[in-house]
Specification:
The protein is mainly alpha-helical. It has 4 domains: 268 residues, P-loop containing nucleotide triphosphate hydrolases (Rossmann fold, 3-Layer(aba) Sandwich), CATH 3.40.50.300; 150 residues; 169 residues, no CATH class; 56 residues, no CATH class. It contains 26 helices and 7 strands. It is rod-shaped. The relative contact order is 0.04. The C terminus is likely disordered. It is a multi-pass membrane protein. InterPro entries: G_GB1_RHD3_dom (IPR030386), P-loop_NTPase (IPR027417), RHD3/Sey1 (IPR008803), Sey1/RHD3-like_3HB (IPR046758). Its EC number is 3.6.5.-. Its main location: endoplasmic reticulum.
Length: 800
């Protein structure tokens, strides 16, 4: 669009052309002017040449009246155009003429509204008037001036506007003579206009800068008119500079708010309300600054750099986050400042603060995420460094302190890089949380390490005490508990010393340290007590094992052979005494060097109670075992109560009685086996009574052979049937066993004899066929054969 092209701002019906004005402002680039622009409007009677003057003065193209068609209304409503070639940017408004016949005498509302609008918007108001009206009471310009002054009262705090009276068709009367008359008329009109109480005495000069210029007739003296217009045009250059034609600039709104301000002003004027320019200025500034702020906020949200930064923070810490985000925020705020710089300062600052708060509120979650990454990263680094320091053998407390300081330093450095210049956010809470997390981790590691140390030395004590204590209790004697106390003291001191050295690297108070060492000592004692309780639960088994060991083995630990010479009673008493010693040792825990009479009490009550000469004493002793506690022994140290000892001894005797009985039986059986010869008297009787039979045998040797064969058969049966072994368990069991084995054994012997006798018979037949005729020897061979067969059975019996 041509810069000089005009646009209707308000039509004849009073409708504001929003779209047209927006388009006009974009085309003439008014928004870029800031406060460096001026608004000029012109008022005057209809057909007084207003549009013609503007077109020649500012190079605009407002529609002009066609003189050949007669005088009529040319401009309807208010039109706007940009002045061509004038700097700074100057916008001119051409108002509808007054006292036109088209609207009639009574329809003056639009005239007043447009006049008020022109005074509120314009820096310079041109009042076009005829030269011949100066000094006349019924001049055409008087209603116009009254209108101007009246509507001026509706502006609560108007700015000082320049009123330039343009005298048209100047006559020969000099301007120096015309100007005083005009100013006098103006003052009269001002004085006659009703004023609010606050402005009763206010002079005209407080509201207006009055300028008067005169122009020749355009129709009669065109060249002179153009020259005078050219000279007048020069006064509009730099009109907004100090001392320029525009005058007071306090109420000017920035160029980018001109359309909105004009629309709101016209709406207020059209609604027949008083126009408060300062309030209007604040309102315009509020709306426009808020719009600018919203635009910048949306622009920030769509900013690629911010989006990339926000996305990067989601996955971890970002180096230089604070500088990057501060730069983006500052750029956004700078753009706001640039666009809102000409608006009212209080409103501009307030909206800027609101914009900054919204931006910071938008980025704060990302900032907190970054702090979270920094905190978690610092905590993870601390854990790794702390673990490495402990693995390297450094002291726990020194490692914790050094790693904590290093971690906090790196976190603080990361927070410094993350700080946003526009925000005063405090990172102390996150720092405190990191410190709490570090302290919690140190505490958990300390607890774990102390637990490991405690478990380590407890396991060492288990190994060092459990086996030896069990072995000592297994071989219970008078030195068992002294040896256990010595072992406990030695191993306990070693463990406490080792744990004490290990705890030197931990920064702990003496009370906690001493408690841990005391707990370790108590644990060592507990191991011994637990093992003693376990062994006490196996007391009966241990007693039987000891009894069996002593009863069944001699002093050289060789198995006893019950030959009949052993004193089973003495051996039994010795074995039972040893078992009783084991019972007395296991009855109570003796970790303190205190004497007791448990062994004596048990001996008197259980071993010596069967003595006839101590019958009366045993009764009282046995009664002493009818108790659940031992004398001079605390209940918590008791492992086996007296009543339990009595019961265990009874069970022990019952279960070992069979072993003693077996030994006695074995001894008797051995005696029987060793005494196989008959008594001497029987031998003498055999000799005397069997003399005749003996002589018979001597006379007939064949009987000797028969007896010999019978002896061999009997010996074979004796070996095969194991008669001596069978009768060791008693006569009746031996007979029953032999009765079942006798017949199978005899049949087996006969079968073997038959097999052995078959081999010589085969050899004899082969000899007879080789030496035919020798038949007599056959009987002899057969006889020899039958006589030799018993002889060959001896080795068979031995093998069997």
């Amino acid at each position: 669009m041509d810069a000089a092209c005009s646009t209707q701002l308000i039509d004849g019906d009073g409708t504001f052309n929003v779209s047209g004005v927006d388009h006009f402002i974009k085309e003439v680039k008014l928004e870029e002017c800031g406060l460096s622009y001026a608004v000029v409007s012109i008022m005057g009677p209809q057909s007084s040449g207003k549009s013609t003057l503007l077109n020649h003065l500012f190079g605009t193209n407002f529609r002009e009246m066609d003189a050949f068609r007669g005088r009529s209304q040319t401009t309807k409503g208010i039109w706007i155009a940009r002045c061509a070639g004038i700097e700074p940017c100057t916008v001119v408004m051409d108002l509808e003429g007054t006292d036109g016949r088209e609207r009639g005498e009574d329809d003056t509302a639009f005239e007043k509204q447009s006049a008020l609008f022109a005074l509120a918007v314009s820096d310079i108001v041109l009042i076009n008037m005829w030269c011949h009206d100066i000094g006349r009471e019924q001049a055409a310009n008087k209603p116009l001036l009254k209108t101007v002054f009246q509507v001026m009262m509706r502006l609560f705090s108007p700015r000082k506007t320049t009123l330039m009276f343009v005298i048209r068709d100047k006559t020969r009367t000099p301007l120096e003579n015309l100007e005083p008359v005009l100013r006098e008329d103006i003052q009269k009109i001002w004085d006659s206009v009703p004023k609010p109480q606050a402005h009763k005495e206010t002079p005209l000069s407080d509201f207006f800068n009055v300028e008067v210029v005169a122009l020749s007739s355009y129709e009669e003296k065109e060249e002179q008119f153009k020259e005078q217009v050219y000279n007048l045009r020069q006064r509009f250059f730099h009109s907004v500079a100090p001392g320029g034609l525009a005058g007071d600039r306090r109420g000017v709104v920035p160029a980018n708010a001109f359309a909105f301000s004009a629309k709101q002003m016209w709406q207020v004027i059209k609604d027949n309300k008083d126009l408060d320019l300062p309030a209007h200025k604040v309102m315009v500034a509020t709306v426009r600054c808020e719009e600018i702020a919203n635009e910048k906020f949306s622009s920030f949200i769509a900013n690629e750099n911010w989006r990339e930064l926000e996305e990067a923070v989601q996955s971890g810490p970002v180096s230089g986050f604070g500088k990057k985000l501060s730069s983006i925020l500052q750029s956004c705020l700078s753009e706001y400042d640039t666009e809102a710089t000409y608006f009212e300062e209080g409103v501009r600052s307030s909206k800027r603060q609101q914009l900054q708060e919204k931006l910071l509120q938008l980025v704060q979650p990302t900032f907190q995420d970054l702090l979270g990454h920094l905190r978690s990263g610092a905590l993870e680094n601390f854990k790794n460094a702390f673990e490495k320091a402990l693995d390297a053998g450094e002291g726990f407390s020194s490692s914790a302190d050094s790693c904590t300081q290093s971690c906090i330093f790196r976190f603080d450095k990361g927070c410094e890089e993350a700080v946003i210049e526009q925000a005063k956010w405090d990172t102390s809470k996150t720092r405190e949380k990191l410190q709490r997390d570090i302290e919690a981790h140190i505490s958990s590691v300390r607890t774990a390490k102390l637990s490991e140390l405690t478990t380590l030395y407890e396991s060492k004590l288990n190994v060092a005490l459990s086996g030896p204590v069990e072995a000592l209790l297994d071989g219970a004697n008078d030195e068992t508990w002294p040896a256990i106390r010595k072992l406990l003291r030695r191993e306990g001191e070693l463990a406490v010393y080792g744990l004490s050295n290990a705890l030197s690297g931990f920064d702990m108070d003496d009370e906690t340290r001493n408690k841990m060492l005391s707990d370790l000592e108590n644990y060592a004692r507990g191991i011994v007590e637990t093992k003693a309780k376990e062994e006490a639960g196996r007391a009966l088994m241990r007693m039987k094992d000891r009894f069996a060991t002593i009863f069944s083995h001699d002093s050289d630990s060789m198995p006893r052979v019950w030959t009949g010479k052993e004193d089973i009673r003495a051996i039994t008493k010795m074995a039972r005494s040893a078992s009783l010693k084991l019972l007395s040792v296991m009855a109570v825990i003796r970790l303190e060097d205190e004497l007791d009479n448990i062994e004596k009490t048990l001996t008197l009550a259980l071993v010596n109670s069967t003595s006839n000469n101590a019958a009366s004493k045993s009764i009282s002793t046995i009664d002493s075992l009818a108790s659940s506690t031992w004398e001079q022994v605390a209940p918590e140290k008791t492992l086996i109560t007296p009543v339990q000892c009595k019961s265990l001894w009874r069970q022990f005797k019952n279960e070992t009685e069979y072993t003693v009985t077996q030994a006695i039986s074995a001894q008797e059986a051995n005696r029987r086996n060793n005494n196989w010869l008959p008594p001497p008297w029987a031998i003498l009787a055999l000799v005397v009574l069997g003399f005749n039979e003996f002589m018979t045998l001597l006379r007939n040797p064949l009987w000797l052979g028969v007896l010999f064969v019978g002896y061999l058969i009997s010996k074979a049966l004796w070996v095969q049937l194991n008669i001596s072994g069978e009768f060791r368990n008693g006569a009746l069991p031996g007979l029953l066993s032999l009765s079942t084995k006798f017949l199978p054994t005899v049949m087996n012997l006969l079968r073997k004899l038959a097999e052995e006798g078959q081999a010589p018979s085969t050899n004899t037949n082969q000899t007879s066929s080789a030496h035919s005729g020798v038949t007599t020897n056959g009987e002899s061979s057969s006889s020899s054969s039958s006589g030799s067969s018993p002889t060959k059975s001896v080795p068979i019996d031995k093998s069997a």
